[in-house]
Specification:
- The complex is a heterodimer of chains A (about 120) and B (about 110).
- Chain A is mostly beta strands and about 120 residues long.
- In chain A, about 0% of the residues lie in helices and about 55% in strands.
- In chain A, the strands form two sheets. In chain A, strands 2, 4, 5, 6, 9, 10 and 11 form a seven-stranded mixed β-sheet that branches. In chain A, strands 1-3-8-7 form a four-stranded antiparallel β-sheet, with no helix packed on it.
- Chain B is mainly beta and about 110 residues long.
- Helices cover about 0% and strands about 60% of the residues of chain B.
- Chain B is built from no helices and eleven strands.
- In chain B, the strands form two sheets. In chain B, strands 2, 4, 5, 9, 10 and 11 form a six-stranded mixed β-sheet that branches. A five-stranded antiparallel β-sheet of chain B has the order 1-3-8-7-6, with no helix packed on it.
- In chain B, strand 9 and strand 10 form a beta hairpin.
- Classes of the chains: A mainly beta (about 120), B mainly beta (about 110).
Chain lengths: ~120, ~110
């Protein structure tokens, strides 16, 4: 299957600072990338969808100014959590689909802890 | 509204004890159904795609089947390393392939 790499795997940051998470498709061109948040023992909650070169589409209730998404190339999307607070601590996961392929492949996830 | 429901929520089996996980779906115009495995602290790992009723896919001790209303993930003679959460999902938004996930089945295989 296709490989999606997410970095970093975990990060600890101070309250009020910003954190950037990268999601790369290593062996295919990702026309669409998705960002999820997952709370313990719960399923994935979609935050936003991004297409290369376009603005991201955010799900209802997700603050677009807090969670900045950039999909500047067909192999890279970034999620920046701005002015992070402890309640933003969570597990963030990206996924990607290629042209003409409905299968989604996921990154390893990023554990964010805001202290 | 598209919906995906998985059962049971949790399942504990003895090593070697075969069983099945269920994924029921309600979606207008099914274009595929996916099964993923997720280990704690990791992202979901792609297992199978099923495209039409009657289709079956196999991988080691896992076999996925699909009907017009549900999918089953059959686990034959499981081993402790099969312990994980199994998620099913369907694409629900033509054009950008947004996925609707079930809540998952947490499978524990006891040695």
């Amino acid at each position: 299957g296709a490989v999606v790499s997410q970095h970093p795997s975990w990060v600890i940051c101070k309250s009020g600072t910003s954190v950037k998470i990268e999601c790369r498709s290593l062996d295919f061109q990702a026309t669409t990338m998705f960002w999820y948040r997952q709370f313990p023992k719960q399923s994935l909650m979609l935050m936003a969808t991004s297409n290369e070169g376009s603005k991201a589409t955010y799900e209802q209730g997700v603050e677009k100014d807090k969670f900045l998404i950039n999909h500047a190339s067909l192999t890279l999307s970034t999620l920046t959590v701005t002015s992070a607070h402890p309640e933003d601590s969570s597990f963030y996961i990206c996924s990607a689909t290629g042209t003409g392929d409905i299968r989604a492949f996921f990154g390893q996830g990023t554990r964010l802890t805001v202290v | 509204e598209d919906q995906v429901t998985q059962s049971p929520e949790a399942l504990r089996l003895q090593e070697g004890e075969s069983s099945s996980l269920n994924c029921s779906y309600t979606v207008s115009g099914l274009r595929g159904l996916f099964w993923y495995r997720q280990d704690p602290g990791k992202g979901p790992e792609f297992l199978f795609t099923l495209y039409s009723a009657g289709e079956e896919k196999e991988k080691e001790r896992l076999k996925a089947t699909l009907t017009k209303k549900e999918s089953f993930l059959h686990i034959t003679a499981p081993k402790p390393e099969d312990s994980a959460t199994y998620l099913c999902a369907v694409p629900t938004n033509f054009g950008n392939e947004k996925l609707t996930f079930g809540t998952g089945t947490r499978l524990t295989i006891i040695p």
